[in-house]
Predict the structure.
Amino acid sequence: MLERWVFRILAIFLLSLTSFLTADLSEEAAIRRIFAFLKIKSPHNAVIEAESALEKFPRSASIHSALISALAADGKEIEALKLLRDNQPPKEWMSKRRELTEIAWAILSKGNSSDQLLVRIMSLIGSSLTRDVRAVPFLLTHLQSSNAALRFLALRFAPLYKDKILCEAISELLMKEQVIPVKCEAIRTIGRMEMLEENNALEEIIASSKALPEEKVAAMEALLMLSEEVEEKELIPLFHSNRSGLRQLGCEIVAYFGLKEKKAMVSELLKDSSSQVRLTALHALGMLGEAPEVGSLFDDPCPEVSITAAWAALRMGIKGGEEIIEKWCEGSNSDLRHYAAAVLSKVGVAGTSLSLRILKKSTDPYVRVNLALGLIGYRVETALACEEIAHFLVTEKNLLMWDQKINSHISAIHPSTVRHIEMIPRYPQLVDDFVRLDLLSTLAMMRYPNVDEVLKEFLKHEMWGVSFTAGELLLTEGEGEMMDVIRGLLQSQDESLRLQAAILLTAMAGDGGAFKVLKEAYSKSNRDRKIAILEALAQSGSKESLPFLIEILGDSFQVLRILSASALIQCLQS
């Protein structure tokens, strides 16, 4: 490191010295000297050199461009932007791709070192979404941050790059991380980034008596992502381990790889002392089929195990499962009612007649909506199921979530218990938006005739922050019909509806008419709406938006500048 600094200082000295000896440099030589200073990371001297050269060659477009690059590298991106705009008509701005990109990265870099947490978060997100290698140092910095929110987000975006230096930082973070949500994200990221060298660390988490359940579940998921095949000599010790987590892992592996020849080992765990192991074994046997012994757990003292045993029995055609499921769907415990309904919805065609009977008589809207999703999945009484989902979306005012706390393989729609977290503003509301969006996309896929009315009700929530997913689900699942519905909302008298429709169409379809709505709405929108507009433009990759984004690069509000910089880079790359 010391040698590198000595070299830089010497190079700067020699370049500076030659400026006294070569006062009559040609234009080409002057440009070479400017970029030489930039190459040795001396942007301040590059600016001085470029300004001096510009006095000598005031009409040189190349030196103008070199000065813009030098100013951007020196953290003077506003001056660089002004120079670009003052010396080029708007129609020629887009021809300056390199200069625009450097200005945008200068804005992102300054945001990355800001004292304000929100600015750093937006800079991290904005740089990561460019999928440009220049985002790697940002991610590395925040993986080592003292702020848990930044570490969490850096882990979430790291799989976009899979850089070796990021893998090393994640391994180090896993060893010392104390914040549980961040540690769980680190574990899952190891799986997503295919870090095979961490297999032993993941197994230690699963086997540890000190690890929390959510850590163990994350480690199991990561190990399965890393596994291409499993040998018997590796599998048998898991089933005989004195650690319940490793016994669960054995069941998960058998189910994941469909190892029917290992059913006997899984069946032995139906007698396990751990209710979670019994539940996991039941799930594995239910997926493999042909295990009549699951009926022995209908009366298990753990309700969740009893319900899961009934699910497995119904899948295999074993008698007695229907009565168990129906009992719990009508029970007094709402958590277990919702779980039982979700379990029944995943039985298959064999469970549809029972689902239909319970749906028609249940007074619990969550039981009905979970069952309706199952009926749609198996294309049974779809009109009735769609009506149930539409009614639920319009009438249910509580915040919603997908609940997997009982069984990681079964998701149940449930009243939200999600808490606010620092790293994501309005997190409980955001989770609710995604659940409602899932339900709405199901209606779009089934071409529900009144989907436009349900859509309007949904868009009234102002679901800023889920626009991309909304567009992807609605415009993909609903195909042309949903596209026409959303495009029709561009003419709505309701300003909020009109804007949200424009955001969806711009983000996912690059609709020119929608962009005009966004452009007109931007100046009179509040900050949240401006952020949503810029996110949609980034997603669209539309060249049409470039002059608009360049104007916003000079905004006084740093978050908007960061978002416009990220959007600009993404549009230039498309």
The two ends are 38 Å apart (CA to CA). Strands lie at 400-403, 412-415. The mean pLDDT is 84. The longest strand covers residues 400-403.
